Protein backbone atom coordinates (compact mmCIF):
# COMPACT_ATOMS: atom_id res chain seq x y z
CA UNK A 1 0.00 0.00 0.00
CA UNK A 2 1.37 3.41 -0.90
CA UNK A 3 1.58 6.04 1.81
CA UNK A 4 1.28 9.71 0.94
CA UNK A 5 2.79 12.54 3.02
CA UNK A 6 0.93 15.78 2.34
CA UNK A 7 2.76 17.53 5.21
CA UNK A 8 6.22 16.75 3.94
CA UNK A 9 6.53 20.08 2.12
CA UNK A 10 5.70 22.29 5.09
CA UNK A 11 9.41 23.01 5.85
CA UNK A 12 8.84 22.63 9.55
CA UNK A 13 12.50 21.99 10.45
CA UNK A 14 14.11 24.92 12.29
CA UNK A 15 16.88 26.82 10.49
CA UNK A 16 19.91 28.67 11.92
CA UNK A 17 19.56 31.67 9.55
CA UNK A 18 18.41 34.78 11.47
CA UNK A 19 16.09 36.27 8.89
CA UNK A 20 12.41 36.71 8.39
CA UNK A 21 11.43 34.12 5.87
CA UNK A 22 8.27 32.44 4.82
CA UNK A 23 9.81 29.28 6.22
CA UNK A 24 10.24 30.47 9.80
CA UNK A 25 7.25 32.83 10.17
CA UNK A 26 3.60 32.32 9.58
CA UNK A 27 2.84 33.45 6.05
CA UNK A 28 -0.65 34.94 6.24
CA UNK A 29 -0.89 36.73 2.97
CA UNK A 30 1.12 34.80 0.44
CA UNK A 31 3.53 37.53 -0.66
CA UNK A 32 6.53 38.91 1.09
CA UNK A 33 5.24 42.44 1.50
CA UNK A 34 1.75 41.52 2.66
CA UNK A 35 3.15 38.81 4.91
CA UNK A 36 5.46 41.31 6.58
CA UNK A 37 2.58 43.65 7.24
CA UNK A 38 0.51 40.89 8.70
CA UNK A 39 3.23 39.44 10.96
CA UNK A 40 4.66 42.72 12.20
CA UNK A 41 1.49 44.71 12.95
CA UNK A 42 1.95 48.34 11.91
CA UNK A 43 0.98 51.23 14.15
CA UNK A 44 -2.53 51.48 12.76
CA UNK A 45 -4.66 54.49 13.65
CA UNK A 46 -7.89 52.73 14.41
CA UNK A 47 -10.03 55.85 14.30
CA UNK A 48 -11.14 57.12 10.89
CA UNK A 49 -10.15 60.71 10.16
CA UNK A 50 -13.10 63.10 9.74
CA UNK A 51 -11.34 65.37 7.24
CA UNK A 52 -14.53 67.10 6.10
CA UNK A 53 -15.89 67.84 9.58
CA UNK A 54 -19.61 67.41 10.20
CA UNK A 55 -20.64 66.66 6.67
CA UNK A 56 -24.41 66.96 7.04
CA UNK A 57 -26.22 70.17 6.04
CA UNK A 58 -29.63 69.39 7.51
CA UNK A 59 -30.97 71.71 10.17
CA UNK A 60 -32.16 74.77 8.25
CA UNK A 61 -35.79 73.67 8.12
CA UNK A 62 -35.71 72.34 11.67
CA UNK A 63 -34.71 75.83 12.85
CA UNK A 64 -37.29 77.86 10.94
CA UNK A 65 -40.07 75.48 10.09
CA UNK A 66 -42.57 73.03 11.41
CA UNK A 67 -44.08 69.82 10.10
CA UNK A 68 -47.69 68.85 9.55
CA UNK A 69 -49.33 65.83 8.00
CA UNK A 70 -51.46 65.74 4.86
CA UNK A 71 -53.59 63.13 3.12
CA UNK A 72 -54.26 64.53 -0.38
CA UNK A 73 -52.18 64.66 -3.56
CA UNK A 74 -51.63 68.38 -3.13
CA UNK A 75 -51.83 71.15 -0.55
CA UNK A 76 -53.98 74.17 -1.38
CA UNK A 77 -53.90 77.28 0.75
CA UNK A 78 -55.26 80.79 0.35
CA UNK A 79 -53.52 83.99 1.34
CA UNK A 80 -55.46 87.10 2.25
CA UNK A 81 -55.21 90.23 0.20
CA UNK A 82 -54.09 93.59 1.53
CA UNK A 83 -56.50 95.29 3.89
CA UNK A 84 -56.58 98.72 2.28
CA UNK A 85 -57.72 99.76 -1.19
CA UNK A 86 -54.87 101.06 -3.35
CA UNK A 87 -54.59 100.98 -7.14
CA UNK A 88 -52.71 102.42 -10.10
CA UNK A 89 -54.25 103.86 -13.22
CA UNK A 90 -54.39 106.90 -15.48
CA UNK A 91 -56.16 110.23 -15.53
CA UNK A 92 -58.30 109.58 -18.55
CA UNK A 93 -59.94 113.01 -18.55
CA UNK A 94 -59.07 116.00 -16.42
CA UNK A 95 -62.40 117.63 -17.28
CA UNK A 96 -65.46 116.53 -19.15
CA UNK A 97 -66.54 113.84 -16.77
CA UNK A 98 -70.05 113.71 -15.37
CA UNK A 99 -69.24 116.63 -13.12
CA UNK A 100 -66.60 118.15 -15.38
CA UNK A 101 -64.15 117.46 -12.59
CA UNK A 102 -62.28 114.55 -14.02
CA UNK A 103 -62.11 110.82 -14.65
CA UNK A 104 -59.61 108.22 -13.58
CA UNK A 105 -59.34 104.77 -15.15
CA UNK A 106 -58.09 102.02 -12.85
CA UNK A 107 -55.71 99.56 -14.51
CA UNK A 108 -54.27 97.30 -11.80
CA UNK A 109 -53.83 96.98 -8.06
CA UNK A 110 -50.92 98.47 -6.15
CA UNK A 111 -48.87 95.26 -6.56
CA UNK A 112 -49.22 95.30 -10.33
CA UNK A 113 -51.64 92.39 -10.57
CA UNK A 114 -53.79 92.60 -13.67
CA UNK A 115 -55.97 90.22 -15.62
CA UNK A 116 -58.42 87.48 -14.78
CA UNK A 117 -57.37 85.29 -11.89
CA UNK A 118 -55.36 88.01 -10.23
CA UNK A 119 -57.17 91.31 -10.47
CA UNK A 120 -59.90 92.60 -12.76
CA UNK A 121 -59.90 96.39 -12.99
CA UNK A 122 -63.68 96.67 -13.23
CA UNK A 123 -64.02 94.73 -9.96
CA UNK A 124 -62.07 97.16 -7.80
CA UNK A 125 -63.38 98.02 -4.33
CA UNK A 126 -63.77 101.81 -4.66
CA UNK A 127 -67.38 103.06 -4.25
CA UNK A 128 -69.20 106.38 -4.54
CA UNK A 129 -68.64 108.81 -1.66
CA UNK A 130 -65.20 107.30 -0.99
CA UNK A 131 -62.52 109.92 -0.43
CA UNK A 132 -59.28 109.24 -2.26
CA UNK A 133 -55.73 110.48 -2.69
CA UNK A 134 -54.63 110.87 -6.32
CA UNK A 135 -50.89 111.13 -6.84
CA UNK A 136 -48.28 111.03 -9.57
CA UNK A 137 -44.95 112.67 -10.32
CA UNK A 138 -46.73 115.94 -11.18
CA UNK A 139 -48.53 116.34 -7.87
CA UNK A 140 -51.10 115.10 -5.36
CA UNK A 141 -54.80 115.84 -4.94
CA UNK A 142 -57.56 114.65 -2.66
CA UNK A 143 -61.00 114.04 -4.09
CA UNK A 144 -64.39 112.42 -3.55
CA UNK A 145 -65.75 109.74 -5.88
CA UNK A 146 -69.01 110.93 -7.51
CA UNK A 147 -69.69 107.98 -9.79
CA UNK A 148 -68.31 104.51 -10.50
CA UNK A 149 -68.68 103.07 -13.99
CA UNK A 150 -66.69 99.83 -14.07
CA UNK A 151 -63.01 100.73 -14.01
CA UNK A 152 -63.74 104.47 -14.51
CA UNK A 153 -64.07 106.80 -11.52
CA UNK A 154 -65.72 110.22 -11.86
CA UNK A 155 -64.12 112.35 -9.16
CA UNK A 156 -64.45 115.87 -7.75
CA UNK A 157 -61.25 117.23 -6.18
CA UNK A 158 -61.34 119.20 -2.96
CA UNK A 159 -60.41 122.84 -3.41
CA UNK A 160 -59.76 122.84 -7.19
CA UNK A 161 -61.98 122.69 -10.25
CA UNK A 162 -60.69 119.53 -11.85
CA UNK A 163 -57.69 117.22 -12.34
CA UNK A 164 -55.90 119.43 -14.84
CA UNK A 165 -53.33 120.50 -12.22
CA UNK A 166 -51.83 117.00 -12.09
CA UNK A 167 -52.71 115.75 -15.57
CA UNK A 168 -49.59 115.87 -17.72
CA UNK A 169 -50.41 113.13 -20.18
CA UNK A 170 -52.92 110.33 -20.41
CA UNK A 171 -50.11 107.82 -20.12
CA UNK A 172 -48.95 109.16 -16.78
CA UNK A 173 -49.15 106.39 -14.17
CA UNK A 174 -51.21 107.55 -11.21
CA UNK A 175 -51.70 106.04 -7.74
CA UNK A 176 -55.13 106.02 -6.10
CA UNK A 177 -55.62 105.36 -2.37
CA UNK A 178 -58.92 105.27 -0.47
CA UNK A 179 -58.52 107.02 2.89
CA UNK A 180 -62.14 107.31 4.02
CA UNK A 181 -65.53 108.62 2.89
CA UNK A 182 -67.85 111.61 3.27
CA UNK A 183 -71.67 111.82 3.23
CA UNK A 184 -74.13 114.65 3.55
CA UNK A 185 -76.64 114.88 6.37
CA UNK A 186 -79.30 112.22 6.10
CA UNK A 187 -77.64 110.75 3.01
CA UNK A 188 -77.65 106.94 2.74
CA UNK A 189 -75.50 104.66 0.63
CA UNK A 190 -77.97 104.72 -2.24
CA UNK A 191 -79.51 108.19 -1.85
CA UNK A 192 -77.65 110.95 -3.66
CA UNK A 193 -79.17 114.40 -3.27
CA UNK A 194 -77.01 116.04 -5.89
CA UNK A 195 -76.63 113.45 -8.58
CA UNK A 196 -79.08 110.60 -9.00
CA UNK A 197 -76.97 109.02 -11.71
CA UNK A 198 -74.15 108.46 -9.26
CA UNK A 199 -75.95 105.69 -7.41
CA UNK A 200 -73.47 102.86 -6.88
CA UNK A 201 -75.05 99.43 -7.08
CA UNK A 202 -72.01 97.70 -5.56
CA UNK A 203 -72.42 95.91 -2.30
CA UNK A 204 -70.05 95.65 0.60
CA UNK A 205 -66.43 94.78 -0.11
CA UNK A 206 -65.47 91.18 0.46
CA UNK A 207 -62.01 89.86 1.33
CA UNK A 208 -60.00 88.69 -1.62
CA UNK A 209 -58.06 85.47 -1.36
CA UNK A 210 -55.41 84.20 -3.68
CA UNK A 211 -54.92 80.47 -3.75
CA UNK A 212 -51.64 78.61 -4.12
CA UNK A 213 -50.78 74.94 -4.17
CA UNK A 214 -47.89 72.55 -3.95
CA UNK A 215 -47.59 68.80 -4.29
CA UNK A 216 -45.44 66.31 -2.43
CA UNK A 217 -42.74 64.28 -4.09
CA UNK A 218 -41.59 60.78 -3.17
CA UNK A 219 -37.91 60.62 -2.22
CA UNK A 220 -36.19 57.24 -1.90
CA UNK A 221 -32.80 55.71 -1.18
CA UNK A 222 -31.46 52.34 -0.07
CA UNK A 223 -28.35 50.54 1.15
CA UNK A 224 -27.47 46.90 0.47
CA UNK A 225 -24.77 44.65 1.93
CA UNK A 226 -24.30 40.90 1.45
CA UNK A 227 -24.90 38.57 4.33
CA UNK A 228 -21.22 37.59 4.44
CA UNK A 229 -20.05 41.20 4.67
CA UNK A 230 -22.33 41.94 7.60
CA UNK A 231 -20.13 39.60 9.65
CA UNK A 232 -16.82 41.05 8.50
CA UNK A 233 -14.78 42.84 11.19
CA UNK A 234 -12.20 45.42 10.13
CA UNK A 235 -9.19 47.10 11.73
CA UNK A 236 -10.56 50.62 11.65
CA UNK A 237 -13.11 51.87 14.15
CA UNK A 238 -15.78 53.80 12.26
CA UNK A 239 -18.09 56.47 13.57
CA UNK A 240 -21.60 57.04 12.33
CA UNK A 241 -23.13 60.48 11.92
CA UNK A 242 -25.18 59.74 15.01
CA UNK A 243 -22.06 59.18 17.12
CA UNK A 244 -22.09 55.38 17.32
CA UNK A 245 -18.83 53.49 16.83
CA UNK A 246 -17.83 49.96 15.79
CA UNK A 247 -15.58 47.83 13.60
CA UNK A 248 -18.25 46.59 11.18
CA UNK A 249 -17.68 48.63 8.02
CA UNK A 250 -21.21 48.26 6.76
CA UNK A 251 -22.41 50.22 9.79
CA UNK A 252 -20.46 53.20 8.47
CA UNK A 253 -21.81 52.82 4.95
CA UNK A 254 -25.36 52.49 6.21
CA UNK A 255 -24.99 55.55 8.46
CA UNK A 256 -23.61 57.57 5.54
CA UNK A 257 -26.59 56.56 3.41
CA UNK A 258 -29.03 57.65 6.12
CA UNK A 259 -27.21 60.96 6.68
CA UNK A 260 -27.14 61.65 2.94
CA UNK A 261 -30.85 60.81 2.67
CA UNK A 262 -31.69 63.23 5.49
CA UNK A 263 -29.80 65.92 3.60
CA UNK A 264 -31.71 65.05 0.43
CA UNK A 265 -34.95 65.70 2.31
CA UNK A 266 -33.82 69.24 3.03
CA UNK A 267 -32.09 69.90 -0.29
CA UNK A 268 -35.18 68.81 -2.21
CA UNK A 269 -37.29 71.25 -0.20
CA UNK A 270 -34.84 74.05 -1.02
CA UNK A 271 -34.12 73.27 -4.67
CA UNK A 272 -37.38 71.64 -5.79
CA UNK A 273 -38.73 72.69 -9.19
CA UNK A 274 -42.23 72.24 -10.57
CA UNK A 275 -42.73 70.77 -13.99
CA UNK A 276 -45.29 71.87 -16.54
CA UNK A 277 -47.62 69.17 -17.88
CA UNK A 278 -46.70 67.96 -21.32
CA UNK A 279 -43.65 70.19 -21.77
CA UNK A 280 -40.72 67.91 -20.98
CA UNK A 281 -39.65 64.28 -20.87
CA UNK A 282 -39.98 64.07 -17.08
CA UNK A 283 -43.66 63.35 -17.66
CA UNK A 284 -43.05 60.19 -19.63
CA UNK A 285 -40.09 59.04 -17.56
CA UNK A 286 -41.95 59.11 -14.26
CA UNK A 287 -45.19 57.95 -15.81
CA UNK A 288 -47.26 59.93 -13.36
CA UNK A 289 -48.93 62.46 -15.58
CA UNK A 290 -49.92 63.52 -19.03
CA UNK A 291 -50.84 66.85 -20.48
CA UNK A 292 -54.52 65.99 -20.10
CA UNK A 293 -54.52 65.12 -16.40
CA UNK A 294 -53.38 68.49 -15.15
CA UNK A 295 -50.96 66.88 -12.72
CA UNK A 296 -47.46 68.24 -12.43
CA UNK A 297 -44.12 66.67 -11.78
CA UNK A 298 -41.73 68.06 -9.22
CA UNK A 299 -42.46 70.32 -6.27
CA UNK A 300 -41.83 73.99 -5.61
CA UNK A 301 -38.90 74.47 -3.24
CA UNK A 302 -38.00 77.52 -1.22
CA UNK A 303 -35.73 79.17 -3.79
CA UNK A 304 -38.27 78.78 -6.61
CA UNK A 305 -41.13 80.02 -4.41
CA UNK A 306 -39.27 83.21 -3.51
CA UNK A 307 -38.26 83.82 -7.13
CA UNK A 308 -41.90 83.30 -8.16
CA UNK A 309 -43.75 85.19 -5.43
CA UNK A 310 -41.18 86.88 -3.21
CA UNK A 311 -38.37 89.44 -3.36
CA UNK A 312 -34.87 89.25 -4.81
CA UNK A 313 -31.89 91.45 -3.99
CA UNK A 314 -28.35 91.61 -5.31
CA UNK A 315 -27.19 93.97 -2.55
CA UNK A 316 -24.85 93.56 0.43
CA UNK A 317 -21.82 92.32 -1.49
CA UNK A 318 -18.98 93.29 0.82
CA UNK A 319 -17.40 95.68 -1.70
CA UNK A 320 -18.06 98.75 0.47
CA UNK A 321 -19.55 98.83 3.97
CA UNK A 322 -21.33 102.15 3.41
CA UNK A 323 -22.84 100.95 0.14
CA UNK A 324 -23.89 97.69 1.79
CA UNK A 325 -25.72 99.64 4.49
CA UNK A 326 -27.67 101.59 1.88
CA UNK A 327 -28.51 98.35 0.08
CA UNK A 328 -29.61 96.75 3.33
CA UNK A 329 -31.87 99.73 4.04
CA UNK A 330 -33.41 99.17 0.61
CA UNK A 331 -34.31 95.67 1.80
CA UNK A 332 -36.01 97.19 4.84
CA UNK A 333 -37.93 99.57 2.59
CA UNK A 334 -39.24 96.64 0.58
CA UNK A 335 -40.27 94.85 3.78
CA UNK A 336 -42.17 98.02 4.70
CA UNK A 337 -44.06 97.66 1.43
CA UNK A 338 -45.04 94.13 2.37
CA UNK A 339 -46.16 92.71 5.71
CA UNK A 340 -43.49 94.43 7.83
CA UNK A 341 -42.71 91.28 9.83
CA UNK A 342 -40.49 92.57 12.62
CA UNK A 343 -38.49 89.39 13.32
CA UNK A 344 -36.55 87.75 10.52
CA UNK A 345 -34.00 84.96 10.27
CA UNK A 346 -31.12 85.27 7.81
CA UNK A 347 -29.31 82.24 6.43
CA UNK A 348 -26.35 83.38 4.33
CA UNK A 349 -23.11 82.10 2.85
CA UNK A 350 -19.74 82.97 4.31
CA UNK A 351 -18.97 85.96 2.07
CA UNK A 352 -22.33 87.61 2.75
CA UNK A 353 -22.04 86.92 6.46
CA UNK A 354 -18.65 88.64 6.59
CA UNK A 355 -19.99 91.55 4.52
CA UNK A 356 -22.75 92.08 7.06
CA UNK A 357 -20.26 91.87 9.91
CA UNK A 358 -18.17 94.58 8.24
CA UNK A 359 -21.30 96.65 7.62
CA UNK A 360 -22.28 96.50 11.30
CA UNK A 361 -18.71 97.04 12.47
CA UNK A 362 -18.51 100.25 10.46
CA UNK A 363 -21.40 101.52 12.55
CA UNK A 364 -19.87 100.45 15.86
CA UNK A 365 -22.28 97.48 16.15
CA UNK A 366 -25.31 99.70 15.65
CA UNK A 367 -28.43 98.29 17.17
CA UNK A 368 -26.86 95.05 18.37
CA UNK A 369 -27.79 95.68 21.98
CA UNK A 370 -31.41 96.35 21.18
CA UNK A 371 -32.17 92.96 19.67
CA UNK A 372 -35.14 91.33 21.40
CA UNK A 373 -34.45 87.65 20.53
CA UNK A 374 -38.19 87.09 20.71
CA UNK A 375 -38.11 84.07 18.43
CA UNK A 376 -35.64 82.46 20.87
CA UNK A 377 -37.84 83.08 23.91
CA UNK A 378 -35.94 86.34 24.52
CA UNK A 379 -32.78 84.36 25.26
CA UNK A 380 -29.56 85.61 23.67
CA UNK A 381 -27.77 82.52 24.96
CA UNK A 382 -30.22 80.26 23.14
CA UNK A 383 -29.66 82.19 19.92
CA UNK A 384 -25.88 81.95 20.25
CA UNK A 385 -26.04 78.23 21.03
CA UNK A 386 -27.96 77.70 17.80
CA UNK A 387 -25.35 79.67 15.84
CA UNK A 388 -27.27 82.93 15.44
CA UNK A 389 -26.12 86.49 16.00
CA UNK A 390 -28.72 89.22 16.29
CA UNK A 391 -28.87 92.87 15.36
CA UNK A 392 -31.56 95.52 15.01
CA UNK A 393 -32.03 98.00 12.20
CA UNK A 394 -35.00 100.34 12.18
CA UNK A 395 -37.92 98.45 13.68
CA UNK A 396 -36.64 95.05 12.48
CA UNK A 397 -34.78 92.34 14.39
CA UNK A 398 -32.52 90.05 12.37
CA UNK A 399 -30.93 86.79 13.46
CA UNK A 400 -28.03 85.86 11.18
CA UNK A 401 -26.54 82.41 10.75
CA UNK A 402 -24.15 80.80 8.28
CA UNK A 403 -25.88 78.33 5.99
CA UNK A 404 -23.54 75.38 5.50
CA UNK A 405 -25.40 74.25 2.40
CA UNK A 406 -24.37 77.44 0.57
CA UNK A 407 -20.71 77.13 1.60
CA UNK A 408 -19.89 73.44 1.17
CA UNK A 409 -18.08 72.67 -2.08
CA UNK A 410 -19.88 69.34 -2.27
CA UNK A 411 -23.31 71.04 -2.20
CA UNK A 412 -24.43 74.53 -3.32
CA UNK A 413 -20.96 76.01 -2.92
CA UNK A 414 -19.68 74.48 -6.16
CA UNK A 415 -22.88 75.39 -8.05
CA UNK A 416 -22.56 79.02 -6.96
CA UNK A 417 -18.92 79.04 -8.07
CA UNK A 418 -19.80 77.59 -11.48
CA UNK A 419 -22.52 80.18 -12.19
CA UNK A 420 -21.69 83.30 -10.20
CA UNK A 421 -24.31 85.38 -12.03
CA UNK A 422 -27.11 83.24 -10.57
CA UNK A 423 -25.43 82.28 -7.31
CA UNK A 424 -27.70 82.10 -4.27
CA UNK A 425 -26.05 83.88 -1.34
CA UNK A 426 -28.75 83.53 1.28
CA UNK A 427 -32.40 83.84 2.28
CA UNK A 428 -34.31 86.03 4.70
CA UNK A 429 -37.17 84.13 6.31
CA UNK A 430 -39.84 85.82 8.46
CA UNK A 431 -40.19 84.33 11.93
CA UNK A 432 -43.49 83.48 13.55
CA UNK A 433 -46.78 82.61 11.87
CA UNK A 434 -49.18 84.02 9.31
CA UNK A 435 -52.96 83.78 8.92
CA UNK A 436 -54.25 81.69 6.04
CA UNK A 437 -57.77 80.74 5.06
CA UNK A 438 -58.46 77.01 5.21
CA UNK A 439 -61.00 76.26 2.51
CA UNK A 440 -62.00 72.94 4.03
CA UNK A 441 -62.54 74.25 7.55
CA UNK A 442 -63.90 77.59 6.34
CA UNK A 443 -61.87 79.68 8.79
CA UNK A 444 -58.54 81.41 9.25
CA UNK A 445 -55.66 79.44 10.77
CA UNK A 446 -52.26 80.43 12.11
CA UNK A 447 -49.41 78.55 10.46
CA UNK A 448 -45.65 79.10 10.24
CA UNK A 449 -44.54 81.04 7.20
CA UNK A 450 -42.37 78.06 6.28
CA UNK A 451 -43.33 74.49 7.06
CA UNK A 452 -43.12 70.96 5.67
CA UNK A 453 -46.17 68.89 4.84
CA UNK A 454 -45.75 65.11 4.73
CA UNK A 455 -48.10 62.35 3.62
CA UNK A 456 -49.66 60.37 6.47
CA UNK A 457 -52.81 58.55 7.45
CA UNK A 458 -53.92 56.25 10.25
CA UNK A 459 -52.42 53.29 8.41
CA UNK A 460 -49.18 54.71 7.03
CA UNK A 461 -46.90 57.58 8.05
CA UNK A 462 -44.64 58.60 5.16
CA UNK A 463 -42.78 61.41 6.94
CA UNK A 464 -39.65 59.24 7.14
CA UNK A 465 -40.03 55.51 6.63
CA UNK A 466 -37.26 52.95 7.01
CA UNK A 467 -37.48 49.18 6.79
CA UNK A 468 -35.17 46.18 6.31
CA UNK A 469 -35.56 43.27 3.91
CA UNK A 470 -33.41 40.20 3.18
CA UNK A 471 -32.14 37.23 5.20
CA UNK A 472 -29.87 39.04 7.68
CA UNK A 473 -31.30 39.23 11.18
CA UNK A 474 -35.05 38.79 11.08
CA UNK A 475 -35.28 37.19 7.64
CA UNK A 476 -37.98 38.51 5.30
CA UNK A 477 -36.84 36.81 2.09
CA UNK A 478 -34.35 34.30 0.65
CA UNK A 479 -32.02 37.12 -0.47
CA UNK A 480 -28.58 36.59 1.10
CA UNK A 481 -28.20 40.25 1.87
CA UNK A 482 -29.49 43.09 3.99
CA UNK A 483 -31.43 45.82 2.20
CA UNK A 484 -32.23 48.98 4.15
CA UNK A 485 -34.90 51.14 2.51
CA UNK A 486 -35.69 54.81 3.17
CA UNK A 487 -38.65 56.81 1.88
CA UNK A 488 -40.35 60.14 2.44
CA UNK A 489 -43.25 61.90 0.70
CA UNK A 490 -43.29 65.60 1.42
CA UNK A 491 -43.42 69.16 0.13
CA UNK A 492 -42.59 72.63 1.41
CA UNK A 493 -45.22 75.30 2.01
CA UNK A 494 -43.93 78.85 1.62
CA UNK A 495 -46.70 81.11 2.96
CA UNK A 496 -46.58 84.83 2.43
CA UNK A 497 -43.61 84.64 0.06
CA UNK A 498 -43.87 88.42 -0.34
CA UNK A 499 -42.23 88.65 3.11
CA UNK A 500 -39.21 86.53 2.05
CA UNK A 501 -36.02 87.81 0.46
CA UNK A 502 -33.61 85.85 -1.76
CA UNK A 503 -30.03 87.12 -1.92
CA UNK A 504 -28.45 86.51 -5.32
Describe the overall structure.
The chain has about 500 residues and is of the alpha+beta class. The chain has 2 domains: about 325 residues; about 120 residues, Elongation Factor Tu (Ef-tu), domain 3 (Beta Barrel), CATH 2.40.30. It has 10 helices and 23 strands. The strands form 5 sheets. It has a 6-stranded antiparallel barrel. The protein has a 6-stranded mixed β-sheet with strand order 13-23-17-14-16-15, with helices on both faces. Helix 6 crosses helix 7. The protein is elongated and about 135 Å long. The relative contact order is 0.13. About 0% of the residues have low confidence.
What's this entry about, in short?
The protein is 19% helix and 29% strand.
Query: In which order are the strands of the major sheet placed?
Result: 3-4-7-6-5-8
Task: Give me the count of strands.
Answer: 23
Q: How many H/I helical runs?
A: 10
| Alpha-beta classification | alpha+beta
Largest sheet: 6 strands, antiparallel, barrel
Domain tally: 2
What number is the mean pLDDT? 77
Sheet-strand content, in percent, reads 25-35%
Low-confidence stretches at least 5 residues in length (pLDDT < 50)? Answer: 193-197
Oligomer: single chain
Cα distance spanning the termini: 91 Å
| Shape estimate | elongated
User: Nearest-angstrom radius of gyration?
Assistant: 34 Å
Measured as a percent range, the helix fraction is 10-25%
Amino acid sequence: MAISNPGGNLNSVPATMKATLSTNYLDLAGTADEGWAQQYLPDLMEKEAEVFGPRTISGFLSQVGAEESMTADQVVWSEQSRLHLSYTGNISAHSGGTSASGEITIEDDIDGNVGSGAFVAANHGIRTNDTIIISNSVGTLKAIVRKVDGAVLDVAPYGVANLSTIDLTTSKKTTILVYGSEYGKGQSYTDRTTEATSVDTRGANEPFFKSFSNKPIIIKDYYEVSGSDTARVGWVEVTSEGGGTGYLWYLKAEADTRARFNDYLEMAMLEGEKGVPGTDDVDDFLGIQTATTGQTTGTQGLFAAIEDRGNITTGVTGVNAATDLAEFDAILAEFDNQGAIEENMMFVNRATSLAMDDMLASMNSYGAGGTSYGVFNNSEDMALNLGFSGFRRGSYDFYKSDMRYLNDKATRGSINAADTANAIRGVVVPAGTSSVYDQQLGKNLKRPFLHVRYRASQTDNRRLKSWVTGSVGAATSALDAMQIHMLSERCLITQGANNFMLLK
